[in-house]
Structures are given as structure tokens and as C-alpha cells.
Amino acid sequence: VQLQASGGGWVQTGGSLRLSCAASGSIFRIITMGWYRQYAGNPRELVAVITTGGGTNYADSVKGRFSISRDNAKNTVDLQMNKLKPEDTGVYYCNAEGNVDIQSRKDGRTTTFWGEGTQVTVSS
Fold this sequence. Notes:
The protein has 124 residues and is mainly beta. The protein contains 1 helix and 11 strands, in the order E-E-E-E-E-E-E-E-E-H-E-E. The chain has one helix at 102-107; strands at residues 2-6, 9-12, 17-24, 29-38, 45-51, 56-58, 66-71, 76-81, 90-99, 111-114, 118-123. The strands form 2 sheets. Strands 2, 4, 5, 6, 9, 10 and 11 form a 7-stranded mixed beta sheet that branches. A 4-stranded antiparallel beta sheet has the order 1-3-8-7, with no helix packed on it.
């Protein structure tokens, strides 16, 4: 599975950006799709994730400002980022987790896929 992300860029504090990610390739079932970010030497951290059923989980720092959505038929996930702050700056990575085949689903085994990061810079 390949994940292609787009939509990063530069914006001033309070501005908005929308990230998009499309998954392609063969996989039996994608369970969750989401976004993580990494800044400087810090660990990669969860920003938001969404399940096939539409359940979502957000980092506390982005609740009320970011919104994640997903198109299951197209295997795409978007992240609408509003009221951006300088601390939102970082490289954002698209993520997908799923069962690569029916056997792995039966076994309960999942595989995680990562896209190349897209830079988001928020200036003060």
C-alpha cells in the first residue's frame, strides 16, 4: 500500500490548511487512517485518526481546531486544520493500518503503512 499525501505549506497563525492522503495498492481491509506529526527531534505523535466506521480520536492539542474525515470507497483521508498555531508546525505523516489479506484478518494481524511527510509551517 502506498500513501500519497498533499496539502502542506506555510500559513500565518490563525490560518487554515487542508491535508489529503490517498491510499493505493492491494490490501484486504484498511481499518484506520490518520495523521501523525513530528517536529525537530521530537517523537512522532498522533494528531488524529479515524476508523472505517467514522470513530475519531484527536490529540488534546488539536481538539476543536482540526477535523479528520475519510472516504472509505476511495481510501482517502483528509485533515482540515483551522486556527493553526506555531506549535502545529512539523512534518505531517499519513498513516493507515489494516489487514493485508483475509488470513491476517482471521489471525488479528495488522500492518501499518506510512506516507512520505508533508511540511506544515505556521509562522507567528
